[in-house]
Amino acid sequence: MSEIIVAKRYANALFQLGQERSKLEQIETELRALREIFQKNKGLVKFLKHPRLAASQKKQLLNDSLQGFSKETLNTLMLLIDRHREEIILDMTDHFILKMNDIKGIADATVYSVNPLSEVEKQRISETFAPKVGKQSLNLTNVVDKKILGGIRLRVGNRIFDGSVSGKLNRIERQLVSPNNR
């Protein structure tokens, strides 16, 4: 079975459990923190998959590292370890967060700019582009990219809104060299 499908099933099960116990917000916060840990430590999944590390040691490591996490989140992680599914932890967290965002009418987005954006600028971008993607607001991550020269480039899922100077220059270049203009 595809890892993505399995990850979705675990995320859905954790989501239902969180709904039943009114802990969705807490679990989402924990999974966002967990996702950040796994993204910053690329070798963590490889370490957890190591065959010489016993499942009990893996569980102890996670219990010690994630003190304060809800038992629902910890039990899900323990279940993934028992079933040798450590590689889907990150996908499972992503699916859970995506499901929470859908309920809230929020979409995660990345905005590329030459300089760091202020909170006011992020808020304006969110207010402007959220209706265009059918959401109430956008959860923006700002990435500074000097190559765009100016303006912004916004990525929401698989949609890209390119208002950057480099993007405009590329479009002009394509128009000038296209065979239709000769």
UniProtKB/TrEMBL annotation:
Q: One MF term from GO for this chain?
A: proton-transporting ATP synthase activity, rotational mechanism
Q: Which InterPro entries match?
A: ATP_synth_OSCP/delta_N_sf, ATPase_OSCP/d_CS, ATPase_OSCP/dsu
Q: How does it sit in the membrane?
A: Peripheral membrane protein
For this record, the Gene Ontology CC terms, alphabetical, are: plasma membrane; proton-transporting ATP synthase complex
Q: Locate the coiled-coil region(s) and give their ranges.
A: none
The stretch of residues making up the signal peptide is: none
Which UniProt keyword terms apply here? ATP synthesis, Cell membrane, CF(1), Hydrogen ion transport, Ion transport, Membrane, Transport
Report the locations given in the UniProt record: Cell membrane; Membrane
Which Gene3D superfamilies does this chain map to?
A: N-terminal domain of the delta subunit of the F1F0-ATP synthase (1.10.520.20)
> What does the sequence similarity comment in the record state about its family?
Belongs to the ATPase delta chain family.
PANTHER family under this entry?
ATP SYNTHASE DELTA CHAIN
Its biological purpose: This protein is part of the stalk that links CF(0) to CF(1). It either transmits conformational changes from CF(0) to CF(1) or is implicated in proton conduction. F(1)F(0) ATP synthase produces ATP from ADP in the presence of a proton or sodium gradient. F-type ATPases consist of two structural domains, F(1) containing the extramembraneous catalytic core and F(0) containing the membrane proton channel, linked together by a central stalk and a peripheral stalk. During catalysis, ATP synthesis in the catalytic domain of F(1) is coupled via a rotary mechanism of the central stalk subunits to proton translocation.
Would you tell me the protein name for this molecule?
Answer: ATP synthase subunit delta
Q: What is the lineage of its organism?
A: Bacteria, Bacillati, Bacillota, Bacilli, Bacillales
